[in-house]
Amino acid sequence: GAGVSQSPSNKVTEKGKDVELRCDPISGHTALYWYRQSLGQGLEFLIYFQGNSAPDKSGLPSDRFSAERTGGSVSTLTIQRTQQEDSAVYLCASSSDYEKLFFGSGTQLSVL
Amino acid sequence: DQQVKQNSPSLSVQEGRISILNCDYTNSMFDYFLWYKKYPAEGPTFLISISSIKDKNEDGRFTVFLNKSAKHLSLHIVPSQPGDSAVYFCAASLYSGGGADGLTFGKGTHLIIQP
Prior knowledge:
heterodimer; A: six-stranded mixed beta sheet; four-stranded antiparallel beta sheet; B: five-stranded antiparallel beta sheet; globular
């Protein structure tokens, strides 16, 4: 497809379980970002990948969160031992420059 | 500590009138600003941007104004149309191009266009 693709679109999980969220960026975009939007909040930066450089993990809220980007393309965000406060929409974005980000539709994560 | 603030969570405007969405920022190092529009169940989409070397950028019905001394920007939509009903996010970037942190977003303003 032409846009950023995220899967699943919805994920319901039980507290304490691990979840994996996937992002397929736009082909050729070297930068990939993960953000999350909690209810009533803005977009919170989580992690940033640029080419083969070490990722900027400064936004990850705890060590339960991690992300990988394989082959400079697909990225997976993993949340271990999920908590109810992890419930949010997780948005992936890719970019070919540092300003204009193209977002996917997001994964709605609900932790029961 | 929010660096980008949108103080109006919602705004209701009559169709055909002007919609004005406001945004304030605290970090004087920001020098590139963007507006994103978000419909329910969709990701945000880029709308319009402005560099700090300008004070106005216009694209069709959308105009963004930047007042650097006041650390304030606004988005004007005129005339407002029903399809403009969405959440609008203001975002700021450090044009140093380091890329770290991506964009800093405000909490958004829900614009409702009434017929």
